[in-house]
Amino acid sequence: MSVSAKILTITALCFASFATLAAPVPGGASGTLDPSNPCNASNWQITGGIPSASYTGSVPTLSSPISATSCAGVFSGNEGPALSPSPNLGYLNDGLLNGQFGLLSPTQFIQPSQLMALKNPNAAVDPGWVMLGQLNGNAGELSYSSVTSPGGTAFSLSNVLEYLQTQTSNVGGTWQLTVDPNIVSILAQNNLFSGRSFDQLAFSVKSSTNWAVYDFDFTLMDDAFQLGIPYIITGTWTMADDFENKNGNSQDISHISVWARDPVMVATVPEPASAALLGIGLLGLAAVRRRKRV
Fold it and tell me: Would you say residue 9 lies in a domain?
């Protein structure tokens, strides 16, 4: 099955599973699903994967953009991205995509079998989403989040990645996620994220009184990206259709938050060969885990 066919299939399945969200909760976060305005997964797309300068081999090129695997929304309310997760290690109820505020299910974009035992080794309940940072407005660079290991100090993700977004039209533009090619050794030195890779990338997008989340599941795209190659990921975004005011005009971005899924427990013994945050693992190593599940 082609990448496009797989994405269309999983998008239909995921959209069918979306449930009406809970009533507003304390902390300025709220959300009510608007069934008359379903989100459009093609509003956020990946247009390319550029190998880092440290890679000298050839890589496949995308024949066409890849739309988000699925999306959730559009919701009426405030998703509260400023309410940053802490320690931001993917624990259940620590952050919007991990089920905090009761707005998104912890299994909104994953299967129950994919939940992990991060905080409690005996309980596979953690969704594993880490917030990379936030951006106010249509364009600029993220204000990066930190991750904090138990008993450790906060580590800013600005040390290992860069996210830039541009505006090229009234309601659209481009985005680029770049990862430090030395990310494996940097994270190992800080005793973080050993043993697994990040396999999903999501964008929570807020405009005026509405918000939606667009998710890319890279386990479905392994035929478009090669295993083990660090990529600079490029993409496009548009606010058309999903975010319109009462006059039918598209609206600007109030703010977005960017997330990646599937961290692991803090490494007691660093494993540099397998440790990955985004670069070496985001677009490839998830295929290894999927083969193990078969």
Answer: yes
